[in-house]
Amino acid sequence: MSVLIAGTVALDSIHTSSAIHHELLGGSAAYAALAAALTNPVQLCAIVGSDFPAEHRALLTGHGIDLDNVESVEGGKTFRWTGRYHDDMNHRETLAVSIDVLEQFAPKLNPAASAVRVLLLANMSPDNQIDVLKQCLGNPFIIADSMDLWINIARERLQDLMQKVDLFVINEDEAKLFVDTTNLIKAGHKLQEMGPKYVVVKKGEHGAILFGPDQLFMTCAYPLRAVADPTGAGDTFAGGMAGYLAGLGRKDFSFADLSNAVVYGSVLASFTCEEFGVKRLAALTRDEAEARLSEFKACTTIG
Amino acid sequence: MSVLIAGTVALDSIHTSSAIHHELLGGSAAYAALAAALTNPVQLCAIVGSDFPAEHRALLTGHGIDLDNVESVEGGKTFRWTGRYHDDMNHRETLAVSIDVLEQFAPKLNPAASAVRVLLLANMSPDNQIDVLKQCLGNPFIIADSMDLWINIARERLQDLMQKVDLFVINEDEAKLFVDTTNLIKAGHKLQEMGPKYVVVKKGEHGAILFGPDQLFMTCAYPLRAVADPTGAGDTFAGGMAGYLAGLGRKDFSFADLSNAVVYGSVLASFTCEEFGVKRLAALTRDEAEARLSEFKACTTIG
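YS: structure for the whole thing
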């Protein structure tokens, strides 16, 4: 079943203690689309400048990702982000951001995109997320991801968004920031009270927690011996979830479906961390993902 | 099957943002013994001063804990620790420590204690841990816990100890410190290379990882909506593991046995966090522990 993924497409420059890479394909929607495309047709909604490299475009279409809803601004510059990771890979700082074409983003969906049954609003401004959501007329299952920036500068719009989504995804520190508590379980429940039926709190190397109406599901993360670049892991996670759910071929999901989606998203995210940018994710096969999923289940199953 | 637990017995004064409590029963061996005593006879090896309150002694013996190997130093003062937790409950600072009788601790085991088949060397100096270990003549399964203090001031003795134990338990930050890596999976494997067949890395609210000879097992922690006082949670975890293993009534354990012990220890540790000091742990029943274990399994089982 087709998935619509709306978010950012970017050119990322990434510094770690081991290497620096310039202008890699990045952005929340790029990672999420590649993750979802492993199992499903994906329609991507984003904006780029005319400087967006043909090779990045080819990489996306080569994975069966439909770019009809990606606006290309003639003479515009693609959104760029430069970041540096600390030695422990769990903390990063933004060195530079050039918003450029993102500022004029006014998403417009074609009829096929507006009819999808699974929609992922990957991380971007809540305004843009709501613009996309309003154009989806097929009563889709709606997943939204966000980040601290929007909690800090667009809290009210984010709250508006949360009343319209089925599943809200956010990372641990941001969840605590959003609802002002140091207890993660309390944070998850408070976020649910803001609207979404389901909340997923991403904990990076420590896994994720899914909060349902009257249930909770927790999972660890796949144990990586080395992390080359965690950029996009959270986006991959959300895209993997969306892809898993769309792959079920229906629109009503049980708590067990959502739990499995969390595990699947978490396993896909582990691949993203293994190389810089989308490199590992773009090379990933379904068999590799399935094999790691089995391995993961074996080392988390209580005897 | 009887468990021998050697470690510290202390009087703890604990400051959190919600309350301050003075001279509570504490110490690694007190928490661990109460945890193991839920399912097994426990022999405790420790040292206290003559100021050690009769009510604390009564609490321990009331749980069937044999104090014959607890030395009481006439005129000596019991080890005291005062600490303060930060608001997030994940970080604490030591405000005061009075070693007192601990300085002269020369553990001596009676014949019953030296014949046990499961030994937990709870957190104390590696010298004391090795002293106890040498007196155990029943070829026991040996678990040892430690902390950053000993890594920093007694690294060589700790390395000696590690060559003699079956299972080494340590928390996440300390594991990374010990083997100088930021990657937890690498840290676990490096610790194994130092001797122990099994290594457990405790991750507090994020659960624990068990490293076996050629397998790995990961578990989350029971989701607590509120933490009153995390003091002793790690000791409870180790004591719970020792108790679980002793309860199996044999001395050779499979990887699945160890995995189940990790889950059981983790669940017991969650009770300790719910109230100050040993209060919740001391009131815990087997039925409550079993019920939480079932609940925990339900919210971590992949569908």
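YS: worth flagging: Chain A has twelve helices and 13 strands.
IM: good catch. Also Residues 255-272 of chain A form the longest helix (18 residues).
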